[in-house]
Structure formats: structure tokens, C-alpha cells
Specification:
13 helices, alpha/beta, 2 domains, Trna Endonuclease, Chain: A, domain 1, single chain, 309 residues, 10 strands, five-stranded mixed β-sheet, Arc Repressor Mutant, subunit A
Length: 309
Amino acid sequence: MAVPDFQTFLRPVLETISDGQVYKVHSVRESVAARFKLSPAELEEMLPSGKQTRFNNRIAWAVTFLAAAKLADRKGRGIVAITDRGRKELKSGPQRFTVTYLMKYPEFQDFRRSKDVAETDPGAPGKSPTPNGQDLTPQELLESAHQTLTNALAVEVLEKTRSTTPEFFEHLVVNLLLRMGYGSSHENAGKIVGKSGDEGIDGIISEDRLGLDAIYIQAKRWKAEVAVTRKEIDEFKGALDSKGASKGVFITTSRFNDAARKAADSKHYRIVLIDGDRLARLMIQHNVGVAISETFEVKRLDSDFFDEE
């Protein structure tokens, strides 16, 4: 099963701490995971940022929302306990708590009305329902929006790249590899090979900053509907052989068909294939051809600052 949305976790989290004991959040996570019979793969599923698992994020926000409604009380860093209000809700409340249901409490209304929460909370007034009826946590909503913007930018970057000249595209490719940490500068690490006598090689770049080994580049600025085939990969292998090399990067603004990918998977050559989508995302990741438009800081409580011991 997929990891349930954080609203589905609200009541199970409260039931886990219902005996009045003080619980560490990681213990709550273990109990809820066992209750829903979540597999290791499901528990390890990451948010788009790759910084936190989806399950841990949803449990954390379930605890936050319960505390905001005064159904639970944070007793310290990573520690939570049920309140009298929480006990009453377990006895008389619905089998599934929702954000809408918690809105009956003034404290939760204040929490929701705060500017920071209103702008990120998936259930805030004016927010559209999330896909498949699953509510995202505020962090998931931010990351989802970021992913949507990145996807749209990737399409725009790729379209613009396809409209460049072959010469510009070859320079772009070397610039990208330099940004990715290969070599140290254009002068001693990256080189564009001229059109005459290039023998199927469009560029050369040092594998490391000391220039101990060279990586040969083939760059194809092709339309989306034209796929790179086995023929182009075999020709690239021949070009590598002529240089006495075995390492290469084949970059295209289009795609590779199955035969091309199979041909590149060889014991004798190390050929990395980068298609149009991956190229655009690498350009975004390494700030090649893009500029930062907005920067947002997501902050957390510094518990050490408030430690009076």
C-alpha cells in the first residue's frame, strides 16, 4: 500500500499515545508503521528533496496538527503526550480526524490563520484539493510546487537548447561538465574539437582537476522526434578506439532508442548516455542557462538555543 496521507495518521498517532505516557516521536512512528503494515520500501520512500522520508514527514505533521488543536502536548524535543482534550476526542470523536474537523477548536483556527501556515497549509481557505483526495503536508506542498516549477523549466530549457547552433551546443556541453566538477577550467580541462577532422568527437574534458584522464564527448543537437540509434553509438565507439580511449559521454537533446542503450552497455567501454530531459535537469541543477528567480528559507526551531542547562 502507499503511505497514507497525514490526515489518516491523526487518530492512529493519538491512539498510540492514549495511555498517558510520554512518548518519543520515533516510537510513535514505529507503532504506526506496524499498525499500517508498511513495507521497508514504503518507509524508505523519500520526498522529492531527498532530505526526509515521506512517512516521517507525515507523522511529524500529524503530531504538529494534533498539538495545534491541543489534543497532544509537546513535552520537549521529539517528545509528545496526549492531553485531556485528546482523550475525550478518542472517546467521542470520529474514526478519522481531518483538518476540517480540528477547525472546531479556536487554537487550531489561530494556527491555521497565521500567515506562514496559511500560505503552505494544503487545507487553507482557497487551496485546491490535492490529487486523489490525499492531503499533502505543508513541506510536501512546497516540494510539490518546486517540482512542478522545475518540470516546466526543464521543458523550456530543452526547447531553447534545441534552438541553438551546433557550435553553441558543443560549448554548452563542456560548460555543463565543468560545472559538474570535471577538470578545472576551459584552458586546461575542456576543449571543443573543430568540425574538420574531429573523427566523431565533439569535445574533450579532463576526468579530474589534475587532468589525469580524458573523457571524450559526442553532442547531438537533434529534434525530439529523432532518436539516437545503435549506429551513432557504434560510430562513437569507433571514435574512442581511434583515440585509444574507453570513456565517453554521449549527450543529445533528443532520446536514445533501446538498441542504442544496449549498445552503450558494454564491458569494454564506459559510455554515459544523457538524453534531452536529463540534460535539461542537469543544466538546472548546475545553473547552466538558468538564473535564480526566488529564494525561500524554511527554518526550524533551534532547541539548543533554548537549552537552559
